[in-house]
Amino acid sequence: MPLQQEPSTSQMLLLITLSRCFSQNTNLGRELTTLEIRDALIPYLESLLEEHGDMLVDVVENYPNPPVKGKPAVQIPPPTPIIDSKKLRPVSRVTEIDATAGNLRPHIVYLMEFGMSIEQINGIIRRFPSFAYYSLEGKIKPVVEFFLELGVPKEDIPTILTKRPQLCGISLSENLKPTMKFLESLGVDKKQWAKVIYRFPALLTYSRDKVEETIDFLRELGLSEDNVGKILTRCPNIVSYSVEDNLRPTANYFRSLGVDVGVLLFRCPQNFGLSIEANLKPVTEFFLEKGYTLEEIGTMISRFGALYTFSLSDNLIPKWDFFVTMGYPNSELVKFPQFFGYSLEERIKPRYARMKRSGVRLLLNQVLSLSSRNFEEALEKKLKKNSS
């Protein structure tokens, strides 16, 4: 049996950089291609080379013990074919692009044509250094043009790339398009891809296992295939929530209030991205303090799914304080919790003032939900009824 050979210096260097590369890309939920590995390695190799210079080999050979600075320098061998030496530039030079220099790289110029500023591009590169080494013709342009063909407005491209620059590193034929077909099979409306990608571009980078885990949970709640597809289309970031850490505990919490969790999730999936301790419980406690029972609170959230998504300090408390001055019984909010969805200054106060001037009283939902014309007709009808 042959003896195991010690790894060469170049192999050790690749092992170190590969481990860092993979640790930053595990969230893609798939195996990286050779080109993606190469592109992800380049920034780390550059930073090591700039930091240690001619002592880089000594650093690797003596890892984890740093070499003595007085030690004679060792000549660094030529780079292996994996690394394109022409692309080796310090990350600092990439992220400090000078728009006046007149020598901007092609993909920078291309992105600027979509309205991206140098600062935005720098921000992407700082968070995801590999983006600086993506080929314009081989990676960035094909993905961007594909999105444009799907109906993504040109002005949305900067937002999408800022949210998920990794999309430009994914193969269109081997990953991106098959992933979209898979999601369409789960009910994502293919006519709505432009909106879905803009809302949550990371959806296209999740593994099938992660997506299927979420779908299985939605089905567990009794949601139909059609409704599952609608949720994925309207709120694709539901896939980013952990089933065991977020979705299931949140479902159990709302279930304890007597809520039909499947219906609530379909109406307002955003609730399931909220923290139970920081968001949900404080709202429940707020209404309990105002004299409502858990059953009444459950009825309110069932009738108005977005209720728990509002800020206590900026929305619920100010509107509650004004509601108290309106003279309605607390039961009016159980019947019409949508009250908290209307603007206090632009809708609630003006409508209440108009009703008060008329000398009549309408139900809370009539005051707020009717159109301006129907609201005036309701006031007039009430006036005639009171005068007869």
UniProtKB/TrEMBL annotation:
The gene is MTERF5_1. Belongs to the mTERF family. PANTHER family: CGI-12 PROTEIN-RELATED, TRANSCRIPTION TERMINATION FACTOR MTERF5, CHLOROPLASTIC. It comes from the Eukaryota. Keywords: Transcription, Transcription regulation, Transcription termination, Transit peptide. This is Transcription termination factor mterf5, chloroplastic, variant 2. Coiled coil: none annotated. The keyword Secreted does not apply. InterPro entries: MTERF (IPR003690), MTERF_sf (IPR038538).
